[in-house]
Structure formats: structure tokens, C-alpha cells
Design a protein that fits this description.
Radius of gyration: 22 Å
Mean pLDDT: 87
Largest sheet: 5 strands, antiparallel
Shape: globular
Structural class: mainly beta
Length: about 325
């Protein structure tokens, strides 16, 4: 066998070895949809979602919009049916404590809390009245913020002014970068059809005019989570979650996350941990967590009641799954 044929054989063997999946989890593989350009492997094929803080944070009731303090020891989230309420839980000795209502919530419809990367501010959505002394909620859902005072205390919420909040428009799912850029979504804003994502730069004493996020062609963009350094966003479109990297002054091709996340059930509220290793999101998923035993006797009413009161009753739970995204410097 000539040297050329030996080299050719080794090359073919290496190619077969690589194609069989013996690549590191964070390697890149060709993407035929974009001219064979490599795309990151964000979720390993063996990774599976788990319920976050089952029985404490995730419950038989609906929960969504997870956000952590910088040390990862306090989680803010939303729970509610008739009224949305912002709650929080603390991790003490490795266990999440019974949630309590945030001091700035519990009266009006409050949702989608987001803790700023430095932990000094929470931006959230509310229909509370705009003016002090008023009791009736406003018709629209606007973005507000509250500043951390000390311990578990937060300041009286402040309404974010125009051009972010507009009369007659609803804003949802805020996310804030380290530089103060505000990401959010809004339906039918300024003539734009459907749900669209936006970002507004912080100019030192006010926000710039929000710019629409075009991340998936003409498809809707909802719940845009930004990395603290704005190097990527994870967002919702339809029922599915997508990853989209920053590319120059714009955005690169959006990548639909793996079927372990996008399994056909409705997802929402993505949030990535500071180390880039965990994706938190809300899903009404039951498949893979619970299934009636077809070999057992049919359920009686007590069984149906127990099933309905379980975490896996198709109400939204907060799920978590291991991922590979860049860590954010603290």
C-alpha cells in the first residue's frame, strides 16, 4: 500500500469516526441550511429536561418567567391564575424554600420579573395605575422597575417612560443586558402586525427608541432573553424556542433548539444561567414525566383528583436542561 493510500485510508476512517458522533459536546457541525456553515451544538442528544424545584417552585399551579439574582441563590418567578403575582424563593443549604410574594407585588397583575445582571434592579410587567393615589388598574400592561434597597426590600416601583411604554400598547417579557439595553415584546405596536421583539438602548438617563428585532424572517418574536453581553438572544416563536447569535451590528441565523426542548408542547419564558450551562423555561409538557399505567385498573375519582393535583397536570412548570452557551463574566 502506497503512502498516499495509507493517508487516504486514515482520512476516511477519521471522517467515519467523526460522523458517528464521537465529537465533543461543544463542537460545531455543518448546517446544510446555511451553506454548510457550522452551528453550535447547544444541547447534547443525551440531555433531558427536569422540573425545577418540584413541589416548591414548580407546583400543580402555573409558574413562569424565571430570573435569578447574580449569586444564583434567589429565584424570582410568577404564579397565578385570576391574578398574576411575582414571588421568590431562596436556596438554603441546597434546598429551595417555600416561596413568598415579592414586597412590590400581590395587589395588581404583575408578571415577567427580570433581575438585572448586577442584581440592583428588577424590571417587570404590571397593569397597576400610573399615578400615585389611584386604585383602579390601567387597561394596558406596561414595564416598571424596582431598585434593590437591602435584604429582601425593594423600592416603590417606577413606571418606565416613553418611548418604551406607549399609551394603548402592552409590553411583556423584559430582559436587560449589563449595559442597560432593554429587550421586550409587544403585540401590534406602532402598526407592526402580531407579536414582535424589541430592544431599546439605555442612553444614560433615558431609553432610546425601541428597534424591532428581526430574528426569524417575518415570524413572530416573543419572550426575548438577552445574554448580559448581548452576544445572543434566546426567544420564543410559536411554541418553540430559538437561539440567535449577534453578528456584527445585526443578528445571525436563528437556530431552533433541540427536540428535547421543542417537543410540540407550548414553551415560553427562556432564561440562561450566568455560566451558560442551564436553560430554564416554562412548558406545559407532560410527556416524559407522567403517563397513566395502561395495565393498571382505571382510575377512580380519588385517582383522578390526585392526578389533577399533581405537578404534571398540563399547567405550566419551570423546566431546566443542560446546555452549552458562553459563560458571562461576573
Amino acid at each position: 500500500m502506497t503512502l498516499f493510500h495509507r493517508i487516504l485510508k486514515l482520512t476516511v476512517l477519521f471522517a467515519v469516526f467523526a460522523c458517528c458522533g464521537a465529537l465533543p459536546a461543544n463542537s460545531q457541525q455543518p448546517d446544510p441550511a446555511h451553506g454548510q456553515q457550522p452551528k453550535p451544538v447547544i444541547i447534547d442528544t443525551a440531555a433531558q429536561p427536569k422540573v425545577f424545584a418540584e413541589g416548591t417552585v414548580s407546583s400543580p399551579f402555573g409558574e413562569w418567567a424565571t430570573s435569578f439574582t447574580p449569586d444564583g441563590k434567589t429565584v424570582f418567578f410568577c404564579r397565578g391564575a385570576s391574578y398574576w403575582t411575582i414571588c421568590y424563593s431562596k436556596n438554603v443549604n441546597g434546598q429551595w424554600t417555600r416561596p413568598v410574594v415579592a414586597p412590590f407585588s400581590g395587589k395588581y397583575n404583575d408578571t415577567d420579573p427580570f433581575v438585572s445582571p448586577d442584581g440592583k434592579r428588577i424590571v417587570f410587567v404590571s397593569n397597576r395605575p400610573l399615578n400615585a393615589g389611584e386604585e383602579s388598574p390601567q387597561k394596558n400592561y406596561h414595564l416598571w422597575y424596582t431598585d434593590h434597597l437591602s435584604g429582601d426590600q425593594w423600592s416603590t416601583p417606577t413606571h418606565i417612560d416613553t418611548p418604551v411604554n406607549l399609551q394603548g400598547s402592552n409590553n411583556y417579557a423584559p430582559s436587560v443586558s449589563s449595559s442597560g439595553t432593554l429587550f421586550f415584546c409587544s403585540r401590534g405596536r406602532e402598526g407592526n402586525k402580531g407579536m414582535a421583539g424589541y430592544c431599546a438602548k439605555w442612553l444614560g438617563d433615558h431609553y432610546d427608541r425601541p428597534q424591532q428585532l428581526i430574528l426569524l424572517g417575518g415570524e413572530e418574536v416573543q419572550d426575548p432573553f438577552t445574554a448580559p453581553d448581548e452576544s445572543y438572544v434566546v426567544f420564543l416563536s410559536g411554541k418553540d424556542l430559538y437561539y440567535c447569535p449577534k453578528q456584527g451590528n445585526g443578528w445571525g441565523p436563528a437556530q431552533k433548539l433541540a427536540p428535547q426542548v421543542n417537543n410540540g408542547d407550548p414553551n415560553s419564558s427562556p432564561y440562561v444561567s450566568r455560566d451558560g450551562k442551564t436553560l430554564y423555561y416554562t412548558s406545559s409538557r407532560v410527556k416524559g414525566f407522567y403517563k397513566r399505567d395502561m395495565k393498571a385498573r382505571p382510575l377512580d375519582f380519588d385517582g383522578v383528583e390526585k392526578e389533577s393535583q399533581s405537578v404534571f397536570n398540563s399547567e405550566g412548570n419551570i423546566l431546566m436542561i443542560s446546555i452549552h452557551l458562553p459563560a458571562t463574566p461576573k
